[in-house]
Write a structure and sequence with these properties.
Blueprint: H1 2-7, H2 10-37, H3 39-42, E1 46-48, E2 55-68, E3 71-82, E4 87-90
């Protein structure tokens, strides 16, 4: 808050700064809720291929950032690749 005071922005500037911080905080809260709700899926090492039924090992965790009404959210999901089907699969139970 001291940086806002130094700028002499007054109440309007303080309010604007609070709204910016609120969006950042809400995004972080949603990320944490997703991690808590989907921890089993996020940490999964294997899954069954939905096409051929083979057991797939996790290849990587992909990350993407989306802008929502409540703030910026970074989503992380494990990805699996089936050598037999030549297709990438993700867990459909996750957002």
């Amino acid at each position: 808050m001291s940086s806002t005071r130094q700028k002499g922005a007054g109440l309007g500037g303080i309010t604007e700064e609070i709204f910016k911080k609120r969006q950042e905080m809400m995004g972080k809260i949603v990320e944490q809720i997703i991690v808590e709700l989907f921890s089993d899926e996020l940490n999964r090492e294997t899954m069954v291929c939905p096409n051929c039924g083979r057991v797939l090992n996790r290849r990587d965790i992909h990350e993407r950032t989306v802008e929502t009404m409540i703030g910026e959210i970074t989503l992380r999901r494990p990805y699996f690749y089936c050598e037999n089907c030549k297709k990438v699969s993700t867990l459909s139970t996750m957002p």
